[in-house]
Structures are given as C-alpha cells and as structure tokens.
UniProtKB/TrEMBL annotation:
GO terms for cellular component: photosystem II. Gene3D superfamilies: photosynthetic oxygen evolving center domain (3.30.2050.10), Photosystem II, cytochrome c-550 precursor (2.40.160.30). Keywords: Membrane, Photosynthesis, Photosystem II, Thylakoid. This is Oxygen-evolving enhancer protein. Belongs to the PsbO family.
C-alpha cells in the first residue's frame, strides 16, 4: 500500500506546475558562451517542487535494502571480467548507515556518482474537454548502460554559512537518448558541468535529510565538427545544402533554411537538487536521491529544445 501511494505521489509531482516553469539558455553561433542565468522565480519554484519529490523518494527510496546493496568495497573487489556484461559498471555504489559527517574547514567530494532511474519529457497533452496542457511524460531509454556520471570531484567548503560543493572535473556528461510514447526520440546531454550546489540550511554536518543543490551548464549535444546529412557543420563542412542552391541564393530562400544552414553551439542552464539519506561516517560516504531539470538537444540551433526531468540516486565520498 505504501509503495502504491508513493508511486501516485511521484506521478503527481512529475506533472506538477512548479516543474513546468520554462527556463531559457543562450545561443551563440560558432562558440560556447556563458548562458543567462535562471530567473529567481524559476529557481525557487524548482527548489520547492524538488523538495517535495525528494521527500517522496526518501520515503520509498530507489536504494536497495542493506542485504542487497552493492557497496564500494564490493565493487572494488571485482575483476574486469566479473563486471563485464553485468551492468555493474553503470551502477552507483550504495551506502549502508544513517550516521553523520562533520565537515571541518575545506574538504573535497570525490568519486561522486549520479545514476538516473527515470527520464521524463515535458509534452503538450490534450485534455478531455479539448484544452491543452503541459505535463511530464515517461519515456523509454534507448541508450545502452553508459548514462551514469562517475568520478566527479570538487571542493566542499562553507560559503556564507552553508556547505557548498563546486564541481571541477570527472566524467560529468553522458550522451543519452530517450523515446516518447509516440515514437519520437529525444537526445540530450545528461550533465552537471560547472555545478555549484549549496546546502539548503546552515551548519557543517551532513546527515540523513541534508539537502543541497544549484545550477549547472548544459553544453550542446553535438560539437562543431559534427556534419548533418547535407554535409553542413559548425566549423567545417558546407555552408548550405549543395543540392538546393536555388532555394538559398536570396534573402527569401535563406529565411526558410537559416537555422539549418547556420549551426550553433548552444549552452543552456540546468538545475539539480540532492537529498542525503544514508551516511557512513567511517568510510566518509554519503548516498541519496536527486532530481534534475535541464534542456534537451537543439540539433545545433535548428530545433526548440525540450525540457527534461531526470530522477535517480547518487553516491559520493568526502575527503577531509
């Protein structure tokens, strides 16, 4: 009964209006730039809705029971051949324990692993009375088991009285594709690049219920060297579709195909919220759940990106 109620709650949160607040990035032809930040209202709406989602996840939890959990020590003890073909390489280690860790001064978060469990896309749906509304719909994952982020590390230190994590390096992006119920495929770059995650409350103690989150950058799904089917690219290839010169020789013709011919490297903003629900003091490990919102692929500027909502689990280790 509890699982059924939790599932209904998750479905309700997935379609909540707070998650549907649009957020815009920036587009600059030929190069990546710093995108304009999310509006304060959009950030606040996302944080409020994410807090509710994280509370539901903490209650039902994606994490395995202690007897079924695969810890970091167990993963490290396996050979390559024991891991090959099992899917373990795409799983985050899990933490056993509900103690706490006190961060004294400057520290580092290492081996941060972020494993998605569900992918949703914001779509327009028609209601029974003919009205159109937007809500997040579940998708089918088309990518093989290579979508988990791993080995991420960065600084962890108090800033303005709150613990703040600043992502610095690691495998912090993964090209991923999902399929909508109608068959449309949506590629996107799952990432937390340049993440600055600040704790929601003051203090320097990390324990179950500790929440932190912030904004990150989402680079273009494709780089400038990518060539489309007509041989056009951002920094190489043709300037226009060679087979259609007549349609692109004047201003009127170029208007129709301007976005297809002029490739751009788009950088948009994303937002992610974490909640810790397991802590191992001796090993310095933390684990929990996350909710992330970001933009999908723009096909190098020719398409309007879709809003993506990703939920899952994470693991990290704190070095002091």
């Amino acid at each position: 009964m509890r699982t059924a109620v939790a599932c209904v709650a998750v479905a309700a949160i997935g379609g909540a209006s707070a998650f549907q607040t649009p957020f815009m990035g920036s587009r600059v032809a030929g190069k990546a730039t710093q995108s304009s930040g999310l509006t304060m209202s959009a950030k606040d709406d996302f944080k409020a809705a994410a807090a509710g989602a994280l509370a539901v996840f903490a209650g039902m939890s994606f994490l395995a029971a202690p007897a079924q959990a695969i810890t970091r020590d167990q993963v490290d003890s396996l050979s390559y051949m024991q891991v090959k073909g099992t899917g373990l390489a795409n799983r985050c280690p899990e933490v056993i324990g509900t103690s706490s860790i006190t961060v004294g001064g400057k520290a580092r978060v290492v081996d941060l692993c972020i494993e998605p469990k569900t992918f949703q896309v914001l779509e327009e749906k028609e209601g029974r009375k003919g009205e159109t509304k937007k809500e997040y719909v579940n998708t089918k994952l088309m990518t093989r088991q290579t979508y988990t982020l791993y080995g991420i590390e960065g600084s962890l230190a108090p800033e303005d009285g709150k613990l703040t994590f600043r992502e610095q390096n690691g495998i912090d992006y993964a090209a991923t594709t999902v399929q909508l119920p109608g068959g449309e495929r949506v590629p996107f770059l799952f990432t937390v690049k340049e993440l600055v995650a600040k704790a929601s409350t003051g203090g320097n103690t990390i324990k179950p219920g500790f929440q932190f989150g912030g904004a990150f950058k989402t680079p273009s799904y494709r780089t400038g060297l990518f060539l489309d089917p007509k041989g056009r690219g951002g920094v190489t290839g043709y300037d226009m579709a060679v087979a259609l010169p007549g349609l692109q020789s004047g201003e009127e013709g170029d208007k129709e195909m301007f976005k297809e011919n002029n490739k751009t490297f788009d950088v948009t903003d994303g937002q992610i919220e974490f909640e810790v629900n397991r802590v191992d003091t001796d090993a310095g490990e933390i684990g929990g759940v996350f909710v992330s919102k970001q933009k999908g692929d723009t096909d190098m500027g020719s398409k309007t990106p879709k809003d993506m909502l990703v939920k899952g689990i994470f693991y990290g280790r704190i070095e002091q």
